[in-house]
Amino acid sequence: MVEARTEAASEGKIAPLPNHVAIIMDGNGRWAEKRGLPRLLGHRAGTDNMRLIVDALELYKVRFLTLYAFSTENWRRPDLEVSGLLRILAAMIERETMALHEKGVKLGHLGKVTSLSEELQGKIHNAIELTKDNTGMTLNIAFDYGGRDEILEAVKRIIKDKVPPEDITEALFSRYLYTADVPDPDLIIRTGGEMRMSNFLIWQAAYSEFYSTPTLWPDFNEKELKKALVAYSQRERRFGGLKAEGEA
Ligand code: IPE
Ligand code: IPE
Ligand code: MG
């Protein structure tokens, strides 16, 4: 993993590259409204864009990608939009899983499944099972995901497991989250211009670099992605300490 990152870096382009990129894919609705189209067509265009960005990040040898597709608060939207989003997710799993599997991508889901139909739960389960031994990029889709929900679920399971309070460390707590096997995101990109987290990875983002762009998600292409990665490479991450020794 470290080797792959060094190799990309030594190509002389962008270094360091993030190991885990997480994206708040916002702006689908506005993209459609600007064109006088129904919002759902924006969501469809946004879904198509996911493939482009997955492929691009694979070229940069990014090992983990997390895409925020539907929040626990998005159920508040009109029924028609919610049911459309669920249909689009189901269709995306049908359409993309085999191709992702062939590329060695390991699929994961962050969030609750209990509010989803049994059919959709089955599709998610099958896609995860099919790809579980793959060794390429890990692609997590956050769907019916909320950071506060994730934390409460972790607390409930810790209590159920009767974990003694003195054993509750940050490392143990992290293992109870949906992201148990996933390192914290290095870079969080938000499209659509807002400067907020909207309940995304609120525990894991403690020291993530945040990048927001006004570009709407369906328009976020390889060039926009490169800009985000360049911005990341120029950040100085201190994690509360001082500048690394030897740096200017
Ligand atoms: C993001 O796009 C996708 C979801 C939240 C499901 P939006 O639907 O929030 O698009 P805008 O913010 O209204 O443009
Ligand atoms: C965040 O976008 C959630 C996703 C992109 C899935 P929202 O459009 O729901 O966020 P707010 O409501 O503007 O904070
Ligand atoms: Mg939005």
Q: CATH topology of the domain at 26-182 and 196-204, what is it called?
A: Undecaprenyl pyrophosphate synthetase
The CATH homologous superfamily of the domain at 26-182 and 196-204 is named Decaprenyl diphosphate synthase-like
- CATH class group of the domain at 26-182 and 196-204: Alpha Beta
CATH architecture of the domain at 26-182 and 196-204: 3-Layer(aba) Sandwich
Which H/E pattern describes the elements?
HEHHEHEHEHHEEH
**Ligand catalogue:** 3-methylbut-3-enyl trihydrogen diphosphate, magnesium ion
Which radius of gyration do the C-alpha atoms yield? 18 Å
How many DSSP E strands? Answer: 6
What is the number of helical segments per DSSP (H or I, 4+ residues)?
8
Helix proportion range = 40-55%
Describe the 3D structure:
By secondary structure, the chain is an alpha/beta fold. It has a domain at 26-182 and 196-204: Decaprenyl diphosphate synthase-like (Undecaprenyl pyrophosphate synthetase), CATH 3.40.1180.10. The chain has helices at 2-10, 28-34, 39-59, 79-102, 118-131, 147-160, 170-175, 222-233, and strands at residues 20-24, 64-71, 106-110, 138-145, 187-190, 209-212. The protein has a 6-stranded parallel beta sheet, sandwiched between helices. α3 runs parallel beside α4 (79-102). The longest helix has 24 residues, at 79-102. The two termini are 27 Å apart. Residues 1-11 have low confidence and may be disordered. The structure holds 3-methylbut-3-enyl trihydrogen diphosphate (2 copies) and magnesium ion (MG).
